[in-house]
């Protein structure tokens, strides 16, 4: 083999490595991996805390965790809706303890002392930071009320950060594996039009998960597993995606996929296989083409 052929062959191998790694991760997570969530249930007294569980993905995750034998704490800002979810979960007949935590994650002054008191004494082994979301605006960033932008950042970025900061020490101190999940959004990598506040909030959480994972694995050598759960379209009854399909699962199906993916040893993961393919495609097509696809997929702004 000539020197030129050797260099070209080596270049092909090097350039192919990211794609081969992605393919290997896809096969492992979606074809080979079996659910290991039971290893995060240290005892019959183990609890999972799911934020934003009054509907949508959070509710789907909470239901699946109860099916798997966990006690759960469901969080939301509307007690009446949470009571309805509690009764629905209890009707599954799994004899799990279902508790309610009421707090508005978008408020400027969250009662963290009250939250800590409500969770006191619970063996929390799984934390699912799911609370989030923002309405799709039809006006530019600078025309949006700053109060709504600020509330959205608190909901999507500051609340999960502060809650994790509060609970991480006690989760790390447990003798069994524990898991912290951040439910993300593809918007962190491909921002939709006019959604700068939401996109940067999810990018913040994405980086937070990466940093925490590095600390827990490489510096603290703890048994805390951190996942950033990359999410695309999900039918969560929020008026954005109104029908389920192969690329838009219903919230309950997606909740099952999220629970199954815990412990996959991949920090950033797409629980729904179609979302994983879509994410790979976005990375492969280049920024200009990806932006055009996003523009075609988004609803057109309403005329003022």
UniProtKB/TrEMBL annotation:
It comes from the Eukaryota. Transmembrane segments: none annotated. GO terms for cellular component: endoplasmic reticulum. GO terms for molecular function: oxidoreductase activity. Pathway: Lipid metabolism; fatty acid biosynthesis. Keywords: Fatty acid biosynthesis, Fatty acid metabolism, Lipid biosynthesis, Lipid metabolism, NADP, Oxidoreductase. GO terms for biological process: fatty acid elongation. Gene3D superfamilies: NAD(P)-binding Rossmann-like Domain (3.40.50.720). Pfam families: adh_short (PF00106). Signal peptide: none annotated. This is NAD(P)-binding protein. The lineage of its organism: Eukaryota, Fungi, Dikarya, Basidiomycota, Agaricomycotina.
């Amino acid at each position: 083999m000539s020197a030129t052929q050797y260099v070209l062959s080596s270049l092909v191998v090097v350039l192919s490595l990211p794609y081969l790694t992605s393919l290997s991760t896809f096969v492992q997570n979606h074809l080979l991996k079996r659910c290991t969530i039971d290893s995060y249930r240290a005892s019959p007294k183990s609890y999972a805390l799911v934020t934003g569980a009054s509907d949508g993905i959070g509710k789907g995750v909470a239901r699946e965790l109860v099916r798997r034998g966990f006690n759960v704490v469901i969080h939301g800002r509307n007690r009446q809706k949470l009571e309805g979810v509690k009764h629905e979960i209890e009707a599954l007949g799994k004899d799990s303890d279902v508790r309610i935590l009421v707090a508005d994650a978008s408020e400027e002054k969250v009662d963290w002392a009250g939250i800590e008191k409500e969770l006191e004494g619970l063996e929390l082994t799984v934390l699912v930071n799911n609370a989030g979301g923002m309405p799709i605006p039809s006006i530019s960033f600078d025309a949006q009320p700053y109060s709504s932008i600020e509330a959205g950042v608190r909901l999507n970025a500051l609340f999960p950060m502060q809650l994790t900061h509060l609970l991480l020490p006690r989760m790390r101190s447990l003798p069994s594996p524990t898991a912290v999940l951040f439910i993300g959004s593809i918007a962190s990598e491909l921002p939709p039009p006019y959604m700068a506040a939401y996109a940067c909030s999810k990018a913040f959480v994405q980086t937070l998960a990466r940093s925490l994972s590095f600390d827990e694995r490489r510096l603290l050598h703890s048994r805390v597993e951190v996942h950033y759960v990359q999410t695309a379209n999900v039918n969560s009854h929020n008026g954005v995606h109104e029908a389920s399909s192969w690329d838009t699962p219903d919230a309950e199906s997606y909740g099952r996929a999220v629970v199954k993916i815990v412990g996959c040893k991949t920090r950033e993961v797409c629980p729904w296989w179609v979302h994983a393919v879509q994410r790979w495609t976005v990375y492969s097509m280049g920024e200009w083409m990806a932006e055009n696809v996003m523009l075609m997929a988004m609803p057109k702004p309403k005329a003022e």
